[in-house]
Design a protein that fits this description.
Length: 181
Amino acid sequence: MGFHTIMKMISGFLKRAFALVLVLGIVFVLFQYYSYIFSRTVIGRIDNVARVTGVTAMIGGSRSLTEDQLHAFSVSIRQPNGEMLTATSVDGQWAIAKAGLCVKAKYYPHPPWDLKQAGTYFNARLLTMADCASQAAEEMGIQKSVFEGVPLTPTVGSPSMPADVPVTSTPAPPPSMETAP
């Protein structure tokens, strides 16, 4: 065997080894960061935000709750095209979010190899929140007239929507405002 033949064999081996390491690296990154790579920015109106952990579990439970359990929410956002997207979240910011406000949020999908939850979203992150008729909502990309006449559709009786409150597209003023001159 000549020197050139040995060098060609070593060169071919190194090229194949490099290609294998590159493919394994891509597979690792895709597997590890799938949810971040395929995350989705959602812009629309909150139709419902519900606390997943019941209030009674927080107050009178015999076992202590973790930080994630305290801030667990289920979120439903209606996009301007009418599509409703839901996700779960452990972001405590959702505690102040109310149905009828417009938001920009980031939804992270469960990977397809997680067969029980494939095709669903988790860890919805609240990025921006504004009144739907405001300039801030328009800057998010929501036209003021998009949600006019579209009723809210939260689950009546959920933690964020008491059962005795009618579902409307605009919230009623507080009792102190109704009698103001």
